Structure formats: C-alpha cells, structure tokens
Amino acid sequence: MKLTDITNEALIDVELNGNTKEEIIDELIGRLDDNGVLKSQRKFKKAIVKREKEGSTGIGFSIAIPHGKSKAVLVPRVAFGIKRDGVDWESADGEDAQLVFMIAVPEKSAGDEHLKILQMLSRKLMDEEFRQQLLEARNSKEALQLLEKV
C-alpha cells in the first residue's frame, strides 16, 4: 500500500487557517467529511480528541499525526495540511507543528491498517529534505506529488 492510495488532492490543504490545535483538527475533519470519508464528524472528532488526551500526537520535527479509529469512518483515509507558521501541538521537542497528517481508520479494520500507515509516514518524515520539500509545496497537487514518494 502507498500513502497516495488513501489520500488525494481534495484531502490536502497547503494553507491551513486555524491558529490552535483544535481549529486545525476541525479543518482536517471537515475536509474528510466533505469527501465522504465520515458518517459523523462529531463522533470522529471524539475519537481524535480521546487519542490526543492519551498523549500528544506531535512527534517532533514540526510534525503532528493525529489519528483516530472510529465507527464514524467509512474508509481509511489520510488528510494532510500545512500550517506554515506552525501551531502548538504539545510536541515532545517543543516545536510547533507545521505538517499535520490526520489518519482516519474504520474501527473494524483498525489494528493493522492504522499501524501500517503510521509506519510508512514516520519513516519518510524522518528525512529532513523531504519535510522541507513538503513545506515548500505551493498547492495540493505539488504536495500530492511529493507524497507519492511515501
């Protein structure tokens, strides 16, 4: 499986507007919902917020990977957004998150799929040059072309 099997241009926003973690979460959930991924925004947000309470998904290196498994998710998808001036995500390294990947997985397929996606993403995102290229993406098409490498 490739990351681009579960994301597309419509799920990418290279100019997130939110100024807080919650606003960014709402924007990305809205994008998933607009693309028919969710049965219920409210229930999926509940899963995301629950996971964030267990520990921040800000993994450092200006990256956050909020994720949730829920019955509210119809198909596995990843929404991606760029917050150029960063937002506090309570990351372990204290850096604001600029690259935010939201993983939505249906509850019934949660175990395996979820971990595979996380694995693919984190491996590629350790590459500083790749992160920089993503930050420089000017539109969702450019971002998607870069994500094809994951």
SSE layout and pairings?
Layout: E1 12-13, H1 21-34, H2 41-54, E2 58-60, E3 63-64, E4 67-70, E5 77-87, E6 97-106, H3 110-125, H4 128-135, H5 140-147
Parallel strand pairs: 1-5, 3-6, 4-6
Antiparallel strand pairs: 2-3, 5-6
Helix pairs in contact: 1-2
Characterise this structure.
Helix content is 40%, strand content 21%. Strand 2 and strand 3 (63-64) form a beta hairpin. The mean pLDDT is 93. The chain has helices spanning 21-34, 41-54, 110-125, 128-135, 140-147; strands spanning 12-13, 58-60, 63-64, 67-70, 77-87, 97-106. Helix 1 runs antiparallel to helix 2. The protein contains five helices and six strands, in the order E-H-H-E-E-E-E-E-H-H-H. The chain has one domain (3-148): 3-Layer(aba) Sandwich (Mannitol-specific EII, Chain A). Strands 1, 2, 3, 4, 5 and 6 form a six-stranded mixed β-sheet that branches. The longest helix has 16 residues, at 110-125. With 150 residues, it is α/β, with parallel strands linked by helices.
Provide a concise account of the structure shown:
Its main location: cytoplasm. The protein is built from 5 helices and 6 strands; from the N terminus they run βααβββββααα.
Q: Estimate what percentage of residues fall within beta strands.
A: 15-25%
Give the CATH superfamily. Mannitol-specific EII, Chain A
Structural class: alpha/beta
What do we call the CATH topology? Answer: Mannitol-specific EII, Chain A
User: What are the low-pLDDT stretches, counting only 5+ consecutive residues below 50?
Assistant: none
Q: How much is the radius of gyration in Å?
A: 14 Å
What is the tally of beta strands? 6
Architecture in CATH?
Answer: 3-Layer(aba) Sandwich
Distance between the termini: 10 Å
Shape: globular
What is the chain-wise order of helices and strands? EHHEEEEEHHH
